[in-house]
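We emphasize that the prediction below concerns an isolated chain of 90 residues; any contacts that depend on oligomerization or on bound cofactors are therefore not represented. The input was used exactly as deposited, without trimming of termini.
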Amino acid sequence: MNQLEAKRRIIKYLKEHNIPYMEGLCGDAPQITMLYRGCENCPDKVLESSIYFFSDCAECRVYFNADGAEWFEEAIAAMTFSDYLTILTL
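Result of the prediction step, given as a token string:
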């Protein structure tokens, strides 16, 4: 499957399931950004994701809002030195 076919199939799925999305470019890479509402375990119950279609692969990224970023920063700040060492050995 090539880049255009993958993008076409994803857009078809999004339309069939009424998932809000928009298309754009990130540099030279076509991009689809989706918004999911009602995600019970996400800050403000909203999650955003993007798929970037590069020439040899596709990359998916998932984002949460500023509240989620703040929670993440607080969790990192609360970590002890041994927590950092544990992560480094994974």
